[in-house]
Structure of dTDP-4-amino-4,6-dideoxygalactose transaminase:
Amino acid sequence: MPGFELFGDKERKQVNDVLDSGVLMRYGFDGMRNGHWKAKELEQALQKRMQVSHAQLVSSGTAALTVALACAKVGAGDEVILPTFTFVASFEAVLSVGAIPILVDVDDTLTLDPIAVEKAVTSKTKVVMPVHMCGSMADLAALKSICDKHDLILLEDACQAIGGSYEGKPLGSYGDLGCFSFDYVKTITCGEGGAIITNNKEYYKSADQYSDHGHDHIGKDRGAEDHPILGYNYRISELHAAVGLAQIERLDDFIATQKKNYSIMRSALEKIPGISFRRVPEHGVENYSFLSFYLPTEETARKTIKAFSENGVDACFYWFDNNWHYYRKWNHLKDLNGLNSFSKEIKNGLPNYKVSDFSKSDHWVSRNISCLIKLGWTDEEVRNRANIMANVLLNIVDFSDY
Ligand SMILES: *Cc1c(COP(=O)(O)O)cnc(C)c1O
């Protein structure tokens, strides 16, 4: 997945443009910047690649989710439905706007289970937030029909799935709002950065203002601009945007490389009885940043991940035990352990996650292993790796009982 693996002259040239002018700020300083507007150019490139009318860059993927929720006017006591398998950023963003994260089960897609979503809808629900974990997407058509039925906003967390598509649309562009992260491990990187994409002009206007202290961005001089709304600083810098500008040009090459490496690994594992693969919803195309598969049981999954590591197969993840990506270890959320106290809406509204039944999620996640697909591998390296993985599965993990 990581764009930082293939980092070179293009990135250096873009960054040097910014360093040469000395203008690190994305707004203003028109006369000093030698015509360089890296953040604006990256926004245009994103609009084009994602086939949307608006893109707003911000300082991180977490900031993108936060700003997107604010644009959708999500606030105190509103409920946002999101999956048990995600990154902590998803519920951090929800809590930060005063809303309540309502976790629901994932299914064999490793993303939101539409049946669980429908069951979780209440009169307080405002947003459904599928998280396209590890490069593949939720069943977006099913989620959209739930959103249409209950008048909810569909917000795609596409931070890990840039470059994938659904019904021919780039992931992130299917919902009302879509968010990307360009942090250091994502498919394309700015070092730190994120973006919100939308076809909704009002959302875009709000994002543009909210992410820059409420600036209306219509004045000539920043100091003279007005502040129609309260906002914060979620701006990206020109230096970060410059890196992203070089990386987005390479996105389709990165995806093609990932697809090639993924296919080699997948065909080696497909021959092994007892293994099944993560379900990709119909009309969906992954970005191939991970190969995710299921073992017959939790026990065989644990044996496999241990044997992978003992045989030098790195970058494979057993999310069931992961601190940051699965609800089981989110004690800080379960205990609402923040620095300062939360509002009564959150305290009263947060379900008691210590007793919640997420056995459906456990059923899938406890048997899942996801292996990162790197860009820098040679064909030979991928084939060797695939052989080792297949050997481990055939010889070390005993499937005979299953
Ligand atoms: C990385 C990530 C984020 C947050 O992005 P940052 O840029 O690191 O803040 C949010 N959601 C998911 C699914 C992610 O993987």
